[in-house]
Write a structure and sequence with these properties.
The complex is a heterotrimer. By secondary structure, chain B is α/β, with parallel strands linked by helices. Chain B has 25 helices and 33 strands. In chain B, strand 3 and strand 4 form a beta hairpin. In chain B, helix 7 packs across helix 21, helix 8 packs parallel to helix 21 and helix 9 crosses helix 16. By secondary structure, chain C is of the alpha/beta class. Classes of the chains: A alpha+beta, B alpha/beta, C alpha/beta. At the A-C interface, helix 2, helix 4 and helix 5 of A face helix 5, helix 8, strand 5, strand 9 and helix 12 of C. Bound molecules: flavin mononucleotide, iron/sulfur cluster (SF4) (3 copies) and FE2/S2 (inorganic) cluster (2 copies).
Chain lengths: 168, 801, 423
Amino acid sequence: MSELLPQQQIDKLKAHAAEIEHPHEMIVDVLREIQAHHGWVPDAGVVLTAEILGITPVEVEEIATFYDKIFRQPVGKRVVHICDSICCWSTGGEEIADHLQQTLGIGFGETTADGLFTLLPTCCLGACGDAPAMMIGLTTYGPLTATKVDEILAKERAELAKTTSGKD
Amino acid sequence: MPKLIIDNREVTVPEGTNVLEAAQALDIVIPHFCYHEALGAVGSCRLCAMNFLEGPVEGLQMACMIKAEDGMVVSTVDEEAVELRSHVIEWAMTNHPHDCPVCDEGGECQLQDMTVAGGHSRRRFHGPKQTYINQELGPFIQQEKNRCITCYRCIRTYRDYCGGTDFGTFGSRNRICFGRFQDGRLESPFSGNLVDACPTGVFTNKVFRFKSRVWDLQEAPSICPHCSLGCSTIPGGRYRELQRVKPGINRETNGFFICDRGRFGYDHVNHPERPRQARLDGQQATVDAALTAAAQRVRQMVEQHGPDSVAFVGSARTSLEAGALLAEWAKRTGSPHLLFETHRERDRAARILVDRLGDRACSLAELQQSDLLLLIGTDLIAEGPMAALAVRQAVRAGAQVVVIDPRPIDLPCSCTHLPVGPERLPVFLDTLVTRKTEALTDAERNPLQALLEQLDAAKTPALLGGADLLGSRGISRLLDAAVALDNNERPVRVVGLLGGANSYGGALLTRSPRDFDTLVDDIQEGAIKALVCLESDPYRECFDPARAQAALGRLELLVSFDCTPNLAAQRADIFLPSRPVAEMAGSFINNEGRLQAFEQVIEPGISIRETSSGDHPPREFSLETPGALPRPAWQMLAQVLDLPGDLPAIRQQIATADERFDALTSLTADETGPRITDPVVLPDTAPDELPQCVPGETLPLLPVQGFAGSDWLAHLSAPLQPLEGEPTIWLHCDLAVRLGLAEQDQARLTTPLGHCHVTVRTSARMADNLVLVPHLWGTALEGLVPGGRHIDCRLEKEVNL
Amino acid sequence: MTDYTQVLFKNRRPGETASLETYEKTGGYEGLRIALQKTPGEICAQVKYSGLRGRGGAGFPTGVKWSFFPADQPGEKYLVCNGDEMEPGTYKDRQLLLADPHQLIEGMVIAAYALQAPVGYIFLRYAYEDCSQVIERAIAEAEAAGYLGKDILGSGFSCELHLHRSAGRYILGEETALINGLEGRRPNPRSKPPFPAQRGLFGRPTNVNNIETLANVPHIMRNGNAWYQQLSAPESSPGTKLFGLSGHFNRTECFELPLGVTLREVVQEYGGGLRNGKRFKACLPGGASSPYMTAEHLDVAMDFNALEEIGSRLGTAGVTAFDEDTCMVAVTRNINRFFARESCGWCTPCRDGLQTISWLLDKIENGQGTEDDLTMLHDQVRNINGRSFCALAEGAMGPVEALLRLFEDEIKEHIRKGKCPFG
Ligand SMILES: Cc1cc2nc3c(=O)[nH]c(=O)nc-3n(C[C@H](O)[C@H](O)[C@H](O)COP(=O)(O)O)c2cc1C
Ligand code: SF4
Ligand code: SF4
Ligand code: SF4
Ligand code: FES
Ligand code: FES
């Protein structure tokens, strides 16, 4: 995960940026790709985005810091976004959030010691019918109970174990 | 012209005026943060609320976002509007620290003023405040992010108006801050404007910080002496130390901003080696004694060797008043030798421009209205920085810019650049005049053809050229081109970038067709035996310093009036300490012929800060203020001439003698200034030698001006030192490869003047086959004068042992 | 589930997304064929007379908006589909896409043709990765079938669609902020005028519509205006609407119902009443920015005009119910925190005013509120409402203003008791 983006992908993005009239429109796309590959966007990721698009790092940083789903600080392998908006709140979202903090042993904004999970509150996930809801990575889960949360975390852990052991 | 009623008073304003401006026209000032005359309205602060009672829009509105229209009836005192304003202030203050007593913005903080004006006096919000980590932004700007009220003025100034690219807005909601991506010096040559743009203390002047409370400063309207544009400034000083410079407002010239050279170049006034003592034959003397001696010896010289044996040379930083008195002195002696620029080509270029500019003159405000700008042989960032900003505003309004110049020009806006060698510039100018393209190469023909078409189609075209690269012939040709490109619908405007703040005024005063180079011949031959230098340095600020220095050694009498430690001042038989702009009143005429007055800001003297060795008040006592002897040059010259030594009388005298200067008698420092254009005495036959390099066997060298380091006064200013850097040369990438050199290599530059170690910079955006040398005072490069004699050089890679 | 005619949801099956084949079998892309026989002006006129109103929250008549669009102007013009859907309580666009995505593609191609804006962007929020895959597949299928791309169905009209996946932030739902977002600028709203129809994406004429709005267009083309208008009772609000139920309902699902059904019907028939047999106390009728309705409004018709008359808004028709045990101060505090957090930071009333309200509501809910705080809350709402740069802050004031209007007693009880009366 130390590499920001594979060279091949960089070349592809560069080629695309060279073709289009307004490369700025790709800022979010490139940041998302770096994040998907590297987990989060370090300063070097901002610089790389600027380089790919032929623009200045400051133009990228202005965008990267605006959106809350671009991580400019290190996060764990999986980011757990627990919804704290009104529908989830009214259906027990706070208890689920407490449960998550307890089982993971971390507070909001923190990452588990094993580097697997980062817990963040999020606004409404558009899963209000399935409240309370959370999103891990890009997958939405709900309606949640404490038991379901445990199952989901166990499943995510198992998957992570597979990918990491595969890599080693 | 819409007519509307604001607070029961009628006002008629130009089309496009917004209602906030319309109210200001009635002297009704409504608190506002985000609106700024130069930056426009964006409607983000929501402070300028007014109630629209009748007319096309109704209800409570942000006045800055509404264009004035006929039939509007507006109230600024409406209860709802007043309540909203007080709330906006309350919100702005929710995150603001309460460090006002120690805040370096104190005394000129708009937030304080608006808080009081908005009626917010008690804090109701007691929640936590947002806090931020500050960045290190280099030598000029101090950042204190916690004070931000998010009015977006900084970003609109730095990036939108000034074209800086290393500054941004970060974050969202109520966690927003402004700065660079990472720590580092703000790169824009206009970075200092952040200080004035920010209504509170987020960006403050790092150099001035904590030197004085601003209400303790002595301030007065002045004119920047660091280039020929004549921007309005407001220098501030205390205890005889000049401490800072702010922009003054002149809607015809600089508008609301200035460049960093103008802002941080002031410290020449406080230079530790500034000569403050009159000298006579190497001994200290009183000013009176030295003046008497000067008058006497000049008279003796004339008596013994005739009037032709004395020459008088002023400079581009000589005030119009002092210059006129120098001319009077020359006239009284009968000497024909009077000029105001020791650099031959700058002198000749200025005189030609003054002679022929006429109605083509173009202020920076007018330049912003141009739809096509051709910049030929000028690097505005170096030769007239604020003109670059005017060009940017034109581009923002849709103008096209074409640059023909050998340098890797960095304008703060987009442009089409043809990087051709300097020897091609005359050819291009000829083509603009004759429309004959035979002399052009194939590669040059198409762009020039296209340019001619663009120029013909343009409604408000302007040609800009610099005296250094174009020389007198080039400036003359530039004016020819303007004539040739005129059509019935519109004239073509011309902007000439000249040697200095009063180059234009000096040219107006010049009475002889000769230039300094021909005087050097006379000196060399012994025909001229005495030289009176008024704030000028013929040793180094001339076309061919080597030749001049050899000749000057033969002088029998050298008189120098100056406020800087230059060579003339050091070598003078009689030296008279004069005052820089900030220490006197006077006037300059800028490159478009605009006569502008400046007032005295401070008295001369060595600052208490220096004499007290840190203690306050100082523990040493004397009846005289140390270092207070310098007098305005015009005052000393008046004494030589037995004229009254007060400025109004001198101005009256000048106006009476020469009606072109009529406006001087009533001129004040807060007006935009009248324009003076008039025929002058032109230099005689043009020199055969082309001012610029010709490609030959060896490597041609092209000395050019830099943003910092080439202006003598700015070079003497400590705050600007960090910008000067090391001696550097620029090469086209291809040439670098051929020479076996690479970016950032150390190299040894050999010229007829000697050797010099330089850092190599390369660019693909410049002319091939030449070595660009940004002139740098105080280094081995100082002898390489921009716009000077053609010099060849050799370049070898420095091998580190 | 419901006896009402299903238009947008007619192909909805649990856990399934309708394929192109299914869509075609039920009349899919017939609307496009019909549209391509007409002139762009005729389509705009038909949409105008159909009475279709925007489903993105404001209910602006879609055909009227289209008629402002300079379709004849040469040069680039853009169609943008707003799939930001980030207002709490709103999840109907997601349900629509997951059920039957080709409706959107077909609607966009028809709109692109009607507006002569052949380049379309679908702007999709970060959390909708599932929808993004569905859209990508639908685009590929439509292209392969000749419904999208060059020379569509031999008509000579070409149209391309791009999917833009965002990275979070509610403000991007505001159309001008969205346009800035697409351009890769900071997504602050732009001042209007100029409206996007004059100067939008990349400075060119741009039309922005909600997903559900666009998805209605093919059905209108295929079945005609008379059919469309008879779908619902109120003349001012024709057609069906996706109602996303959430909160304390027994059933928190998304239903396609005719506009104008009563709140009572929604609560009882579709929501199945409230959980644990509790009584209905209040609801947000159309997303977190819509002012509360209470039990006294149960017989109000859920359409654009009727809700405005009682001081609320249909908004996105995401109905979030609260039972009798719910503290409305706490509800409002939660909602306000959302808006404060999602403020773009451009203008002072929103950026710092919402923060101030958050602080006040925290204080009151925590039992530390005073009468002065209540006064301050009133003056904050008064000075934010209608004073901000865009409609976000105004939307944020919806619930706060309704709290003060409908539940001031509850606030006072907090202050009097020095704690939340709901425990
Ligand atoms: C703060 C804010 C958020 C918005 N969010 C959305 C949204 O998520 N989806 C949407 O379609 N419209 C949203 N809108 C409305 C859009 O600005 C725009 O009016 C709408 O997309 C137009 O489409 P329609 O006419 O089809 O409804 C929002 C408006 C505001 C002020
Ligand atoms: S730093 Fe100053 S100018 Fe910039 S937004 Fe903040 S208060 Fe305004
Ligand atoms: S542009 Fe010239 S006159 Fe203006 S501030 Fe800069 S150096 Fe001074
Ligand atoms: S109301 Fe103002 S701060 Fe809030 S989202 Fe709109 S523009 Fe941004
Ligand atoms: S409120 Fe949690 S998903 Fe909508
Ligand atoms: S000055 Fe008008 S809104 Fe800021």
